[in-house]
Amino acid sequence: MPIFSGFKSTFLLLFILFSACAQKQDKKMNDSSLSSKTIEKEIIVAANRTEAYIPLLKNKRVAIVANQTSVIFNADGHTHLVDSLLAMNIELKKVFAPEHGFRGKADAGEKVKDGFDKKTGLKILSLHGKNRKPSKEQLEDVELVLFDIQDVGVRFYTYIATLQLVMEACAESGIPIIVLDRPNPNAHYIDGPTMEAEHTGFLGMQTIPLVYGMTIGEYATMINEEGWLAEGLKADLKIIRLENWTHDRSYSLPIRPSPNLPNDISINLYPSLGLFEGTNINAGRGTEFQFQRYGASFLDSTELDFSYTPKPNFGSKHPKEEGKICYGENLTSSEHMNSVSLKWLLKAYKNSTDKSKFFITSGFTKHAGTEKLQQQIEAGLSEKEIKATWQKDIETFKRIRKNYLLYD
Fold first, then answer.
1. Which pLDDT tens digit goes with each residue over 108-150?
2. Under 8 Å CB-to-CB from 2, ≥6 apart: which residues?
3. CA-to-CA distance for 178 and 51, rounded, in angstroms?
4. By CB neighbour count within 10 A (0-12 exposed, 13-18 middle, 19+ buried), where does 136 fall?
5. What is the pTM for the complete model shown?
6. E-strand stretches of 70-181
7. Would you call 22 exposed, middle or buried from its count of C-beta atoms within 10 A (0-12, 13-18, 19+)?
8. Angle of the 159-173 helix axis to the 216-225 helix axis, nearest 10
């Protein structure tokens, strides 16, 4: 009996010790999980940080560069920044609107006319119509410019061109400009051909890679400090920063930034499929899967058996290959992209039954930033061989870029 009692006591003691250790481990795991959740704090866009910029707007005559993405997020969803500023008694004189217009409804490349906002009565001045840069006359009654537009981090997406031209106009007129920063959903990598100086234009004003890995605020600082404004001017620039965001943190855009980028998949594929814009291949315009598929009537249907027919719709009044059966690929289930891919472009060219129809040379050069890419594709180079020719320029850009990063 004493031996059995001693055994029971020992067993009970071991059980208590084991339970205590298990509870301690569970607590440690829970604490670790809690710590992980704490790290992933909510991303706060600059527009929501009203305490950082509203005092700078008080008693100023303000112009705003804005579109449908210029919002303050709240419990009910979001409120347009223009409405919020007016409610705070900020003296808004006018709105400058980029490509696609103030409400984001115009087609790609479509000229947008000046007008008035029906809701607020504010004058809307188009920066994608008769002029792409605010004129001195348009800025005469303005003391400060506020810029707030959601970008997607691709060189030929024209909002960064508008940014540069607005900064330049402000510098010429001695008007301060405030940029409200927003996350770049393609900030997690740098890749693609670098724009060559002789091909710069509205689809790429500077010699940067196709995907440059910077927020619009970081890029504005680079424009200013690298002397990219006309005649070496510098803008009186202030960036209102994001909170709780890093370059490798994913960000799902709550509002489509333009008519043909409807979701995260299209935005992620856009750097790669956007190169089709300089060809006669349809990249999903005229469907509800823009930049999530590609095809053309002259692609080999025995090799590319996915088919669809582009028709006029929101954001694409006259899509390429309108009304024709297009053969190509459906990419809605493709892997998340961490680099620019040429595989679809190369595959489409290889399976083109009439290669003379493939390229729109001037357009392709403007999008690629170089004549070399078309020449390399026509010469039959592989994706690996082509991408190897990008690397020196990319490394040069990375060294410059690191001087202007505001986030990890």
1. 778 888 999 988 999 999 999 999 999 999 999 999 999 999 9
2. none
3. 14
4. exposed
5. 0.89
6. 71-74, 77-80, 91-97, 115-116, 123-126, 144-148, 177-180
7. exposed
8. 50
